[in-house]
């Protein structure tokens, strides 16, 4: 595994770097040696945050955690990553996909995973009317949803607005 560790508003000391490599080294039993693990450490308003991204063929495994202590954040993010890797394995096995990035002995290992397969329990159709981004945010708030799908009046593409932490909004636009 190749670690790419960077910091935002924090100096990445040798101690922190060693802790990250040691803790994320636990993922070695799941991942092949040629996998890159991208780690970003940051400090924001007394919060110590770690973001970990593991790009794999066709998929991205990503987790982030924050707490008052960077070492606690590192410990918390490991549990999330292990759970996501197990879920990824389950999906690969159920769909018979190629196991890019996972060790063969991990895939062959038979274990009970408590994550069920994805089940869609409700489907909804609705007309998408053209509107600008601000109008879509207002409509989302009026409906009390965390996201809203709309046709952008400027580009005529289907976009999604969503609520982010801290009372901000995000916009997802297609890229071709």
Provide key terms for this protein.
single chain, 176 residues, alpha/beta, 4-stranded mixed β-sheet, 4 helices, 8 strands
Taken in chain order, the helices and strands follow as EHEEEHHEHEEE
Which segments are poorly predicted (pLDDT under 50) over 5 or more consecutive residues? Answer: none
The neighbouring-strand order within the major sheet is: 1-2-3-4
State the separation between the terminal residues, measured CA to CA: 31 Å
Shape summary: globular
Largest β-sheet summary: 4 strands, mixed
Radius of gyration: 20 Å
Let me know the number of strands. 8
Q: Share of helix among residues?
A: 25-40%
Strand content: 25-35%
Count of DSSP H/I helices: 4
Q: Kindly state the mean pLDDT as a whole number?
A: 82
Structural class: alpha/beta
């Amino acid at each position: 595994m190749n670690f790419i560790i960077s910091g935002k508003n924090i100096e990445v000391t040798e101690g922190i770097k060693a802790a990250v490599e040691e803790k994320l080294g636990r993922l070695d039993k799941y991942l092949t040696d040629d996998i890159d693990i991208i780690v970003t450490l940051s400090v924001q308003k007394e919060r110590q945050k770690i973001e970990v991204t593991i790009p794999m063929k066709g998929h991205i495994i990503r987790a982030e955690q924050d707490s008052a202590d960077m070492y606690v954040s590192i410990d918390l993010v490991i549990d999330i990553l292990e759970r996501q890797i197990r879920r990824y394995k389950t999906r690969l096995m159920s769909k018979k996909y190629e196991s890019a990035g996972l060790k063969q002995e991990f895939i062959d290992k038979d274990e009970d995973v408590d994550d069920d397969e994805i089940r869609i329990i409700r489907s909804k159709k609705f007309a998408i009317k053209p509107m600008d981004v601000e109008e879509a945010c207002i409509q989302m708030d009026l409906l009390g949803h965390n996201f809203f799908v709309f046709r952008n009046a400027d580009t005529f593409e289907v976009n999604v607005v969503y609520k982010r932490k801290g009372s901000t909004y995000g916009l997802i636009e297609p890229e071709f």
